[in-house]
Design a protein that fits this description.
By secondary structure, this protein is mainly α. The protein has eleven helices and no strands. α3 packs antiparallel against α4, α5 packs antiparallel against α6 and α8 runs antiparallel to α9. It comes from Streptococcus himalayensis. InterPro entries: TPR-like_helical_dom_sf. This is Tetratricopeptide repeat protein.
């Protein structure tokens, strides 16, 4: 296992200090190492640092005409912008990513589902609820074409939140219940706990 692979494994296992230590021993500057440094920066809420690292990835992908890395970098930048509450900027980045997926990965249901989820969720945060619902339904439709239970669970959770915002209590409750079931099937206990809290704190 390479040093960068060890560092990623440590990060996934929550061993952040070990991940940082391994990165300090790394002499290479690659998209993978920058992405990990950005994730670690986000853990400490160093948003500008993370954004700069992802911007390096985006520029490198543009120069190499690497559409795979480009759409990933745009998505990562959008997530940072969302964390910084720069929602319009995040939505613009996600829209750019959507165009790349449409042009180069139009048969990849999971990529389409994840992007549509973000478009729907950001519109929820921007109080564009009806439009957000359209995107979240698309996300669910694409997610159901895959065997990715987490993508399906997230789409149902998004629908639950959007329906709740629209005052559609029954649809919201059913969506949350479906999301909970899928998170449990996937073994995602944190995801399941989050939905249980949503159900407990909601009045139906």
């Amino acid at each position: 296992m390479t040093i960068i692979e060890q560092a990623w494994q440590a990060f996934v296992e929550g061993k952040l200090v070990e991940a940082k230590d391994l990165l300090s021993k790394l002499n290479e500057d690659t998209a993978s190492s920058r992405s990990l440094r950005a994730y670690l920066a986000l853990e400490e809420q160093h948003y500008q640092q993370a954004m700069k690292l992802y911007e390096q990835n985006r520029i490198e992908a543009l120069l190499a005409k690497n559409q795979e890395e480009l759409h990933v970098a745009l998505h990562q930048q959008a997530m940072v912008a969302r964390e910084m509450d720069r929602l319009e900027e995040a939505l613009d980045l996600i829209a750019q990513e959507a165009e790349i997926i449409r042009q180069h990965f139009s048969d990849d249901a999971l990529r389409l589902a994840v992007n549509a989820y973000e478009q729907g969720y950001l519109r929820l945060k921007l109080h564009q609820t009806s439009e957000g619902l359209v995107y979240m339904k698309k996300s669910l439709s694409w997610a159901l074409e895959t065997d990715d239970l987490i993508a399906q669970a997230c789409a149902y959770r998004g629908l639950g939140e959007l329906y709740q915002e629209l005052g559609a209590s029954e649809e919201s409750h059913l969506s949350f219940e479906q999301s909970l079931s899928l998170f449990c099937q996937a073994g995602d206990h944190l995801g399941a706990e989050e939905i249980e809290k949503m159900l407990k704190n909601s009045e139906f």
